[in-house]
Design brief:
alpha/beta, TIM Barrel, six-stranded parallel beta sheet
């Protein structure tokens, strides 16, 4: 279903970073996304990465014939966020996996059960992935926004999506476990901390798992915390995220994904100078 993760690691790494992202940003989710940002900034005024979906959960016929939801509150909020140093990231196009189910049990589980059919780019052909990314960028540019990076819904990138990505000039993408520098062909192992808000067991266990993972990854060059709109509905999850951010800021510098990519790029250049022939690590 997806390309094998490239085994390229950087041997010289920047100082520890913290990247906090808000996923699934759209007019329909804007109120909850804005509340997430407000809760985080009540702890510290950190830069955020907003993962924006142009047509969140809209099928083709709905986009062609349906009435668009008023996006002015979201646009005003994201314009203000961008002006203060936050980053806007293209996060798919519809956040819906519309391809026919195929493959083995693992793929069917990931696409149909685990992600609830939201892994939009998990099984697209290169041509369709190219079309959707292009439409997403047109939607961004019509609003005066730039997208230095692309993150696939549910972090699932199939072979076709991997083939299409280099054509658009994105500096990075992220999967669940890695941060990829697309131009350099290098990546860093950095699993994202994320909450499971959809069921009681997930709400009970994911903060515990997040705390354990944060301790295990304390020496990693990058700590990622990924928040989703439903998280704000559960005070326990929100309070845990606030405490986690407050604790990590004692040892990590908060950056956007784009700023993280730049620091990792500088580290990759330093690695290249250390290797015979000046070749990047893993090339």
């Amino acid at each position: 279903m997806s390309r094998t993760e490239p085994p390229t690691e950087l041997s010289r790494l920047p100082a520890p970073m913290l990247c906090v992202s808000i996923h699934d940003v759209a007019p329909a989710t804007w109120d909850e996304c804005a509340r997430l940002a407000q809760a985080l900034r009540s702890v510290a005024d950190i830069p955020l990465s907003w993962l924006v979906v142009p047509h969140y959960h809209k099928h083709e016929h709905e986009r062609q014939h349906g009435q668009e939801r008023d996006d002015r509150p979201m646009r005003a909020g994201l314009d203000a966020a961008s002006a203060r140093g936050d980053e806007l990231v293209l996060h798919g196009y519809t956040h819906l996996d519309t391809e026919r189910p195929a493959g083995g049990m693992r793929e069917r589980f990931l696409r149909g059960v685990y992600t609830r059919s939201e892994g939009e780019f998990s099984a697209l052909s290169a041509g369709e992935a190219r079309r959707r990314i292009g439409l997403g960028l047109e939607w961004f540019h019509a609003r005066g926004w730039q997208a230095p990076g692309f993150v696939a819904p549910a972090w699932l990138l199939g072979q076709g999506a991997w083939e299409a990505l280099p054509e658009f000039g994105f500096s990075y993408t992220t999967t669940f476990t890695r941060f990829h520098l697309l131009r350099e062909g290098t990546s860093v192992f950095t699993p994202s901390l994320v909450y499971t808000a959809r069921n009681r067991a997930g709400r009970a266990l994911s903060p515990v798992a997040g705390s354990v993972a944060a301790r295990l990854l304390a020496r990693a060059p990058l700590m990622r915390l990924s928040l989703h709109p439903p998280d704000v509905r559960h005070p326990r999850l929100l309070a845990h995220a606030q405490r986690l951010v407050e604790r990590l800021l004692a040892s990590h510098t908060a950056v956007t994904k784009a700023a993280c990519a730049q620091r990792l790029r500088e580290a990759a250049a330093a690695n290249a100078r250390l290797l015979p022939g000046g070749k990047p690590c893993g090339s």
